[in-house]
Amino acid sequence: DAKTTQPPSMDCAEGRAANLPCNHSTISGNEYVYWYRQIHSQGPQYIIHGLKNNETNEMASLIITEDRKSSTLILPHATLRDTAVYYCIVRVALGSARQLTFGSGTQLTVLP
Amino acid sequence: DSGVTQTPKHLITATGQRVTLRCSPRSGDLSVYWYQQSLDQGLQFLIQYYNGEERAKGNILERFSAQQFPDLHSELNLSSLELGDSALYFCASSTAGGAGTEAFFGQGTRLTVV
Predict the structure, then answer these.
(1) Which of A19, A84, B48, B75 is deepest in the core (most CB within 10 A)?
(2) What is the distance in angstroms between the Cα of A17 and the nearest Cα belonging to chain B?
(3) Which residues contact A94 (CB under 8 A, 6 or more apart)?
């Protein structure tokens, strides 16, 4: 699975959009980009994933560059409850699901 | 609520003892994963089971073992416990097949070894 690079920490004002970047320059054509978050000591929570097209769900949007070497997770209106560690993970999705390999992630702090 | 249930939520035990952590996956999910998260450490993958069979192994100690039963629930057994085994242990489950399969995590078991 490709390695990812994320900034260790970011701040965002409440109500503003939070844009979390992720570099995955060695991504292969069959690897997906996943985003999870972990609110302090809780179980990681799935947010969104994508292959090459931009994706949006009720939680967030995922923008993947055309060359797929980087992506951005966008929380459109961040709230204090969005304060968490956000993990960008790249992995192959096979017939039987493979494990997720978590890096250090980005600590997002939403400020009042 | 992810649909993944882990019991117990908290466990305090002494060094040298053995404990069993239990995980009930989401209905229909065939894969179960176990992760360990020590204080100020990242999530470390331990082991994966798929439909009752071991599928992948990560950084799991020989003192630890796991299994997945016919009803798909899984147990993680930790023996000869040491202080350094104190951690959060998470279970996750996912469906088999299909592209872009996501995993759903339980709320974890906090193990304290004293």
Answers:
(1) B48
(2) 25
(3) none
What's the DSSP call for residue B84? Answer: G
Write out pLDDT tens, residues B83-100: 999 999 999 998 864 445
Residue B74 CA, distance from chain mean position: 8
Strand partners, A19: A74
User: Which distant-in-sequence residues (6+ apart) come within 8 Å of A40 by Cβ?
Assistant: A84
Coil vs helix vs strand at A2: coil
The per-residue pLDDT of chain B, averaged, comes to: 91
CA distance B79 to chain A (A): 24
- Residue B35 tokens read as 């992760």
pLDDT computed for residue B1 by the predictor? 84
For chain B, what's the residue count?
114
CA gap B94, B29 in Å, rounded = 5
Say what the pLDDT of residue A94 is: 52
Tell me the CB-side half-sphere exposure of residue B36, using CA atoms within 13 A. 19
Tell me the C-alpha distance between B102 and B98, whole Å: 10
- Decide if B101 and A44 are in contact by the 8 Å CB cutoff: no
| Residue A96 pLDDT | 47
* Cβ(B25)–Cβ(B32) below 8 Å: yes
CB A20 within 8 A of CB B88: no
